[in-house]
Design goal:
It comes from Paenibacillus solisilvae. Keywords: 2Fe-2S, Iron, Iron-sulfur, Metal-binding. By secondary structure, the chain is mostly beta strands. The chain has one domain: Rieske [2Fe-2S] iron-sulphur domain (Rieske Iron-sulfur Protein). It is built from no helices and eleven strands. It has a four-stranded antiparallel beta sheet with strand order 2-3-4-9, with no helix packed on it. It has a four-stranded antiparallel beta sheet with strand order 5-6-7-8, with no helix packed on it. Strands 1-11-10 form a three-stranded antiparallel beta sheet, with no helix packed on it. The radius of gyration is 13 Å and the shape is globular. The protein starts with 5 loop residues before the first strand and ends with a strand. About 30% of the residues are buried.
């Protein structure tokens, strides 16, 4: 992994357990999650069904539910789980370092 692609997204404590926040960087927008197990994940920010930001959605365990049409995605894999979504979310590697959440953008 190229160290230059790691971007500081937020402080660890900015994301509550079973919550999601928005993170904008350059021309992209992302969703940063903390699941029921306390693990952090990152995906593209917009639902693949319609361009609604997932930071307004509901996190249940390891599932994010889109706020508009209630489509669901698996947070760790980005896999579409319930219609109307049928296209998976892109996921990004996450690391915790120095009390900060970092995501790897790009390859």
């Amino acid at each position: 992994m190229n160290q230059q692609n790691w971007v500081e997204a937020c402080a660890e404590n900015e994301v509550e357990v079973e919550d999601v926040i928005r993170f904008d960087y350059e021309e992209g927008t992302y969703a940063i999650y903390r699941t029921d197990k306390g693990d952090y994940y990152a995906t593209d920010g917009f639902c693949t069904h319609e361009k609604i930001h997932l930071s307004n959605g509901l996190v249940m365990g390891q599932i994010i539910e889109c706020p508009k049409h209630n489509g669901k995605f698996d947070i760790p894999t980005g896999q579409a789980k319930r219609a109307p979504v049928c296209i998976d979310l892109r996921t990004y590697p996450v690391k915790i370092e120095g009390g900060k959440v970092w995501i790897q953008i790009g390859s």
